[in-house]
Amino acid sequence: MKKNTTLLLLIFMILPLITGGAESQVLSEMELYNTIYRGEDEWYYLGSGNAALTFRSARDPHVIGQTEIEFYPLDMTNAPVSSVPTLQVKKAYVKTRLPGFKLTLGKTRLAWGEGVVFNAADVVFGSLNPVLDLTQTELRSDTAWLTAVNVPLGNFAFLEGVVLPPALDYERGEVSSLTSSSIGGRAYFLAGGIKVEGGYLYKGETKVQADALGHRPYISLQGNFGPDWYLSSSLAIPTDEQKQSQNASGDWEKSWIFSFGLFHMQEINRNNTLNLRLETLWFPYQNWEKKELRDTIYGVYLYPEITWTTASSTFYSLQSVISPLDASAMITGGAGWNIYQGFFLLGYCTFLAGDETSTFSWDRGEAWDPLQDRVNGFSLMTGIRYNY
Question: Are 279 and 302 within 8 A, CB to CB?
Answer without folding.
Answer: yes
